[in-house]
């Protein structure tokens, strides 16, 4: 199966945490956390539509300025999500600059900033041309389900404890449509953008009896959607990617993280300290590599990437990696 999302950590495990998630079939990306993103190309950054920030410790939010700098003067709506106080954190960043010339910009750049609370979300919009000064009060709405939903995927969150509220995130594809290229060729068709429309039709629950038009090369053919799906597609369970950065090892966090990350294809989880230093980890509200691995195993994830290593272990990253993987495989065995 070719995955729809291609997550990659922007920096090495000792550098700022940030997970960039481009979409395979669209010029679009999501990003979890906004640490130093200078190694991400402008082309990649401009694909970002939604930003999910775990918390605003500097190493997780310093990339905001680079993002803002690149989007200024462009037509774009950028959606940002973060924990309690996120709106004032963003406003504080915006207040650090002078905006006297932006009203002349012909393009429309808008920031939609949402704060996650236990039972509600609070959203404030900022229009660049209005010097980012909101024209109305923030809007509150009840919150129970996913944080963000599209027909093909959703992003879920839980509020975790890092001495301050800190969000964990999980991206879940509803189902995965595998295209059988040989079957496409057998029908005399070429692969192309029509396949994205075809998948969209499946995600949108279009009736299997409806007509679906394929524009392939110079030819145009009409199919019955259900028939075409039977011939060229296999539906399997969707991809799931989870991201946990900066949490203390507590019963409540454990329960929430395991539930959020359950059966993920790939879990990215902080592993700041070695287990021999677990007292320091606890004081700093971080995980040890062993704890991170244990959580990954209990959540039954298929792949584990520990990251966000403390600088005290520079040159010894392999020890953190080994400790996490050992605990993961052990917990996975006990789980089965
Ligand atoms: Zn951190
Ligand atoms: Zn932190």
Topology:
Elements: E1 8-9, E2 19-22, E3 29-32, H1 42-45, E4 48-52, H2 58-61, H3 64-71, E5 76-82, H4 86-94, E6 109-116, E7 120-127, E8 139-142, E9 148-149, E10 153-161, E11 165-173, E12 175-179, H5 181-186, H6 194-203, E13 211-216, E14 219-224, H7 225-232, E15 233-237, E16 240-244, H8 251-261, E17 266-270, H9 278-283, H10 289-298, E18 304-307, H11 317-335
Parallel strand pairs: 3-4, 4-5, 5-6, 16-17, 17-18
Antiparallel strand pairs: 1-2, 2-3, 6-7, 7-8, 9-10, 10-11, 11-16, 12-15, 13-14
Helix pairs in contact: 10-11
Bound molecules: zinc ion (2 copies).
One zinc ion (ZN) is lined by residues 17, 57, 59-60, 246, 308.
Describe this entry's structure for a reader:
It is globular, with a radius of gyration of 22 Å. The two termini are 25 Å apart. The strands form 4 sheets. An 8-stranded mixed β-sheet has the order 1-2-3-4-5-6-7-8, covered by helices on one side. The chain is 28% helix and 29% strand. With 336 residues, it is of the alpha/beta class. The protein has 11 helices and 18 strands. Strand 5, helix 4 (86-94) and strand 6 (109-116) form a beta-alpha-beta unit. Residues 17, 57, 59-60, 246, 308 line the site of one zinc ion.
Helix content: 25-40%
Pattern of helices and strands: EEEHEHHEHEEEEEEEHHEEHEEHEHHEH
Radius of gyration: 22 Å
SS-derived structural category: alpha/beta
Number-wise, the strands total 18
Distance between the termini: 25 Å
Outline the low-pLDDT stretches: none
Strand coverage percent: 25-35%
| Main pleated sheet | 8 strands, mixed
Specify the overall morphology: globular
How many helical elements?
Answer: 11
Identify the bound ligands: zinc ion
């Amino acid at each position: 199966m070719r995955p729809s999302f291609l997550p990659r950590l922007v920096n090495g495990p000792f550098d700022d945490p940030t997970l960039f998630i481009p979409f395979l079939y669209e010029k679009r990306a999501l990003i979890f956390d906004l640490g130093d993103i200078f190694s991400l190309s402008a082309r990649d950054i401009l694909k970002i539509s939604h930003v999910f920030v775990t918390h605003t410790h500097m190493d997780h939010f310093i990339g905001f300025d680079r993002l803002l700098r690149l989007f200024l003067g462009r037509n774009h709506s950028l959606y940002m999500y973060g924990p309690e106080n996120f709106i004032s954190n963003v406003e504080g960043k915006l207040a650090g600059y002078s905006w006297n010339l932006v009203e002349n910009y012909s393009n429309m750049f808008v920031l939609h900033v949402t704060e996650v609370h236990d039972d509600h979300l609070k959203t404030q919009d900022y229009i660049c041309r209005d010097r980012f000064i909101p024209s109305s009060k923030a809007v509150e709405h009840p919150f129970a389900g996913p944080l963000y939903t599209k027909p093909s995927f959703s992003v879920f969150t839980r509020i975790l404890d890092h001495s301050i509220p800190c969000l964990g995130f999980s991206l879940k594809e509803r189902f995965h449509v595998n295209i059988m290229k040989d079957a496409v060729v057998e029908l005399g068709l070429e692969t192309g953008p029509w396949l994205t429309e075809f998948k969209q039709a499946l995600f949108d629950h279009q009736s299997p009896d409806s007509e679906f038009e394929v524009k392939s090369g110079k030819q145009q053919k009409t199919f019955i959607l259900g028939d075409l799906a039977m011939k060229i597609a296999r539906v399997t369970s969707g991809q799931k990617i989870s991201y946990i950065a900066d949490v203390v090892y507590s019963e409540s966090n454990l329960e929430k993280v395991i539930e959020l990350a359950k059966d993920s294809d790939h879990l990215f989880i902080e592993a700041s300290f070695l287990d021999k230093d677990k007292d320091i980890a606890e004081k700093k509200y971080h995980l040890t590599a062993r704890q991170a691995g244990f959580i990954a195993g209990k959540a039954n994830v298929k792949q584990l990437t520990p990251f966000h290593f403390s600088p005290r272990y520079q040159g010894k990253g392999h020890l953190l990696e080994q400790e996490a993987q050992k605990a993961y495989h052990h917990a996975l065995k006990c789980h089965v």
